[in-house]
């Protein structure tokens, strides 16, 4: 009896040990300890990341890959005709469209204003737009225009059947301006009002100050509008002299896109653009006579009444024709841009944007890359609260300097894909296409095909980015413009010191 009882107790003890062992080893999912279940869940998610379902990788791969976009690059050929007076006429025909866009681009802007008449290019541009109601009574067209530091553009978008009317309108605006006292007086008041409105746009103000300090005592340092004293003193004779000096046929391009036939466009331009100036002076001669120099410096305007601080940090960039200009475009995309209202900063590819968004140290950041004929500006514009300036400045300089030392292959591929997507997106706007045709003809002397542009973008790799960063960013002088409650913004030497790392 005693031996049976002993055997029964022994078997019960062994069964208890076996059950306890099963609980510890986890023979089933229901018997796992909580931390074991968490561990298995994490391992399962990592396994799915490393071996994702191929159905979801075609458009949203976590590892960016280079792709062939040749099938997306079937754009119309650009036809260019040079008239005997030097005027260039270019077009890209899409006859299936019902609308067309025609633009007049002049290779002249505020940079070429005389010092005592700074702002006359802007005055001329506003005079053209102000004269539209006098010339467009019978033309159904949407007109727009802008003046930059090196170009002046006027565009008309209209139905393809009315293209000849749009060309007549543009010709009359450029060649038959009304320079009476009343018209000039009205335009003068309009420019002064617009100049005050621009002051409300903090980004434009900061970039004007940035140009003023980066290109001190040079034409690029002047604002587009010019000082108020010059606006008050510009006369009809000054405008007429500007037209004769800079609106020469060989410095202009007439470009069109959409429902347009090139041969008809050329014939219409020949008929109406007959009063253009024949001044032989070229843009290259004007630039050589008054060159610009980049100066490492800063300008700070402290205004504690403003709620947010705005500042821009910039290096000297490339000219339009520089071979490294494409690499800087890729680097601009790598650094990225972001605004707090977007709400997607935590998940973008840019590490700078991730740092800013996750830590909430800025309201807006924007990487800019401005190209001129002989120089440029590459940098970042930011808006932030006063108590975030130190952390934001560190993040900006850290990410910029990192381009000279450590560049990820995936980051470069992602930036290349984003840049190409951006270019394709804007290629569907006829107005933008006609303006881009004219800009490229003035800058490069030809229209760059998308296939060639994409090939140059794809040629940028991690080693190219580091080489270009060492050329333009590594231990280089910088220009800073800041405005608002900026007492917490580090000084110039702090920024200059962080244009390089001390690595051993």
Low-confidence stretches: 8-29
> How many angstroms separate the termini?
83 Å
Helix content: 40-55%
How are strands sequenced across the largest beta sheet?
A: 1-2-6-3-5-4
General form: globular
Number of helices: 19
Q: Please describe the biggest sheet, giving its number of strands, its sense, and whether it closes into a barrel.
A: 6 strands, mixed
Gyration radius, rounded: 31 Å
* Strand element count: 12
* Beta-strand proportion: 15-25%
Structural class: alpha+beta
Mean pLDDT, to the nearest integer, reads: 86
Task: Give an account of the 3D structure.
- The structure is a single chain.
- The chain is α+β, with helices and mostly antiparallel strands and 504 residues long.
- The protein is built from 19 helices and twelve strands.
- Strands 1-2-6-3-5-4 form a six-stranded mixed sheet, with helices on both faces. The protein has a six-stranded mixed sheet with strand order 7-12-8-11-10-9.
- It is globular, with a radius of gyration of 31 Å.
- Mean pLDDT is 86; it is low at 8-29.
């Amino acid at each position: 009896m005693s031996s049976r009882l002993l055997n029964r107790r022994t078997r019960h003890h062994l069964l208890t040990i076996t059950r306890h062992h099963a609980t510890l080893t986890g023979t089933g999912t229901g018997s796992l300890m909580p931390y074991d279940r968490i561990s298995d869940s994490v391992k399962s998610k990592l396994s799915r990341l490393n071996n994702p379902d191929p159905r979801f990788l075609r458009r949203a791969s976590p590892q960016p890959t280079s792709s062939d976009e040749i099938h997306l690059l079937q754009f119309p050929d650009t036809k260019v005709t040079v008239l005997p007076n030097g005027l260039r006429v270019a077009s890209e025909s899409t006859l299936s469209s019902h609308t067309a866009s025609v633009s007049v681009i002049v290779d002249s802007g505020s940079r070429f204003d005389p010092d005592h008449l700074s702002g006359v290019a802007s005055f001329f541009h506003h005079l053209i737009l102000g004269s539209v109601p006098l010339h467009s009574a019978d033309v159904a067209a949407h007109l727009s225009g802008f003046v930059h530091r090196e170009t002046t553009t006027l565009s008309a978008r209209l139905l393809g059947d009315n293209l000849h009317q749009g060309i007549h309108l543009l010709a009359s605006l450029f060649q038959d301006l009304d320079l009476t006292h009343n018209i000039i007086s009205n335009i003068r008041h309009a420019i002064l009002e617009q100049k005050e409105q621009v002051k409300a746009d903090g980004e434009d103000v900061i970039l004007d100050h940035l140009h003023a300090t980066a290109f001190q005592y040079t034409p690029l340092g002047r604002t587009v509008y010019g000082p108020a004293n010059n606006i008050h003193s510009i006369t009809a004779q000054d405008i007429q002299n500007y037209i004769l000096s800079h609106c020469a046929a060989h410095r202009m391009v007439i470009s069109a896109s959409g429902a347009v036939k090139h041969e008809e466009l050329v014939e219409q331009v020949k008929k109406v653009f007959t009063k253009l100036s024949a001044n032989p002076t070229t843009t290259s001669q004007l630039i050589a006579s008054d060159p610009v120099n980049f100066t490492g410096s800063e300008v700070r305007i402290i205004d504690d009444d403003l709620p947010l601080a705005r500042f821009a940090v910039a290096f000297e960039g490339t000219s339009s024709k520089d071979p490294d200009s494409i690499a800087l475009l890729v680097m601009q995309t790598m650094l990225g841009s972001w605004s707090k209202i977007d709400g997607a900063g935590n998940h973008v590819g840019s590490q700078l944007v991730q740092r800013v968004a996750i830590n909430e140290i800025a309201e807006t950041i924007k990487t800019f890359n401005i190209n001129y004929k002989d120089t440029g500006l590459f940098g970042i514009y930011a808006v932030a609260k006063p108590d975030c300036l130190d952390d934001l400045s560190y993040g900006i300089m850290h990410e910029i300097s990192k381009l000279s030392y450590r560049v990820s292959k995936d980051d470069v591929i992602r930036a290349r894909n984003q840049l190409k997507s951006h270019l394709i997106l804007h290629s569907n706007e006829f107005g933008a296409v006609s303006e881009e045709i004219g800009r490229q003809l003035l800058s490069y002397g030809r229209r760059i095909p998308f296939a060639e542009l994409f090939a140059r973008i794809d040629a940028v790799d991690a080693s190219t980015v580091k080489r270009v960063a060492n050329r333009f960013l590594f231990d280089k002088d910088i220009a800073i413009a800041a405005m608002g409650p900026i007492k917490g913004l580090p000084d110039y030497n702090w920024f200059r010191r962080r244009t390089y790392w001390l690595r051993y």
